[in-house]
């Protein structure tokens, strides 16, 4: 249904080994609809994990590289894009080097650890007339895109409030063992680089790019790792008098990943919960409550063929959301390869990532000053 008749685009992975948080997800999602194939990679600094991952992914030994620098040097003319899946603190150096070497780049969120690093990456994109796509996978869910459509066409009336929460439990569960890079905070706590970027992105995505103006934030530590922030709370003023309230953290026992979005408008409200990804609840001013899924007549976006790899009633989820985003990125890359400019309402680069980091930096400042901070 969503499968492309075009030849697959050729990818190389930097990072994304079997022991990484999202590597296998990217490998599978990029290939679901035939838009991409993975031809080469430097998947891990550890030779044994690098080799094991290459074997699992079906990569030839000759195209399994011991360093990302060697990959850039040897694969210059053999790829359509590089996917950067290393820990966030490593992104800036690798992404800029790849752009300077002429590679289109797909990078896992967060793009970088600061707004300044995002600006540096944006400068490299401009300098090279390059291509950069940052993967924020939650906006790939069909019902999130349906909610975006409802907001844009006025079905909810004037948007007044957005409430977003992403509670997880990983830092308080018994036997918790986070990756080492997640146990260090920067000017922005790593929890914000991990989860907070989704808060900014989803509001930006749903509202068509409304700008955050000022925030008041609070940060706390409740888990087993006292040296890092593990819970963040924020109230934000956006343009057009929109209030956004958010909470994200990793010490909410019982929540594997409790992403919930609630949008309150003057005519109706809507709610989406990632643990029930096929359902979007619409609440009308006359008291009616309508549950919408991919099979509903009201689902103008989610009923599209591309989102129905199988019929409604058979849930699609996290990997399919990533696959939807990879399909959008593939369309942009093909536009560029044919001499055009990349254009998509669903693909985001350095500029939006920079705004997101400024938003998160303002939250962190506010948590220390105990005052409203401008974004």
What does this structure look like?
By secondary structure, this protein is of the alpha/beta class. The protein has helices spanning 23-31, 47-57, 68-74, 91-100, 115-128, 142-152, 190-207, 318-337, 350-369; strands spanning 9-15, 36-42, 81-85, 105-108, 132-135, 159-167, 212-220, 231-238, 242-249, 260-265, 268-273, 280-284, 289-292, 373-374. The radius of gyration is 20 Å and the shape is globular. The protein is 32% helix and 22% strand. The strands form two sheets. The protein has a nine-stranded mixed sheet. A five-stranded parallel sheet has the order 2-1-3-4-5, sandwiched between helices.
Task: Lay out the secondary structure.
Elements (H helix, E strand, L loop, with lengths): L8 E7 L7 H9 L4 E7 L4 H11 L10 H7 L6 E5 L5 H10 L4 E4 L6 H14 L3 E4 L6 H11 L6 E9 L22 H18 L4 E9 L10 E8 L3 E8 L10 E6 L2 E6 L6 E5 L4 E4 L25 H20 L12 H20 L3 E2 L1
Parallel strand pairs: 1-2, 1-3, 3-4, 4-5, 6-9
Antiparallel strand pairs: 6-10, 7-8, 7-14, 8-9, 10-11, 11-12, 12-13
């Amino acid at each position: 249904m969503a499968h492309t008749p075009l030849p697959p685009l050729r990818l190389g992975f930097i990072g994304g080994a079997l022991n990484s948080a999202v590597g296998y997800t990217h490998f599978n999602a990029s290939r679901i609809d035939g838009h991409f194939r993975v031809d080469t990679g430097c998947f891990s600094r550890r030779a044994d994990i690098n080799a094991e991952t290459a074997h699992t992914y079906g990569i030839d030994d000759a195209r399994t590289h011991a360093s990302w620098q060697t990959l850039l040097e040897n694969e210059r003319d053999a790829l359509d894009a590089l996917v950067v899946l290393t820990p966030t603190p490593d992104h800036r150096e690798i992404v800029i080097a790849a752009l300077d070497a002429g590679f289109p780049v797909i990078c896992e969120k967060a793009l970088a650890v600061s707004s300044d690093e995002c600006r540096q990456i944006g400068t490299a994109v401009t300098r090279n007339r390059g291509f950069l796509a940052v993967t924020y996978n939650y906006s790939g869910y069909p019902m999130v895109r349906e909610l975006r459509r409802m907001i844009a066409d006025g079905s909810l009336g004037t948007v007044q409030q957005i409430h977003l929460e992403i509670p997880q439990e990983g830092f308080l569960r018994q036997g918790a063992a986070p990756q080492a890079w997640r146990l260090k905070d920067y000017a922005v706590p790593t929890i914000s680089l991990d989860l907070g970027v989704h808060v900014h992105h989803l509001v930006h995505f749903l509202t068509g790019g409304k700008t955050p103006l000022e925030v008041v934030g609070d940060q706390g530590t409740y888990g087993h790792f006292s040296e890092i922030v593990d819970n963040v709370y924020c109230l934000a003023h956006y343009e057009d008098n929109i209030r956004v309230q958010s909470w994200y953290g990793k010490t909410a026992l019982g929540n594997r990943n409790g992403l919930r979005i609630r949008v309150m408008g003057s005519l109706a409200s809507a709610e989406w919960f990632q643990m029930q990804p096929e359902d979007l609840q619409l609440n009308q001013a006359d008291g009616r409550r309508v549950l919408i899924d991919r099979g509903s007549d009201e689902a103008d976006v989610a009923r599209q063929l591309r989102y129905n790899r199988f019929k409604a009633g058979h849930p699609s989820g996290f990997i399919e959301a990533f696959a939807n985003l990879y399909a959008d990125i593939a369309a942009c890359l093909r536009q560029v390869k044919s001499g055009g400019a990349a254009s998509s309402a669903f693909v985001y680069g350095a500029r939006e990532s920079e705004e997101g980091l400024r938003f998160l930096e303002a939250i962190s400042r506010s948590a220390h000053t105990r005052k409203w901070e401008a974004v």
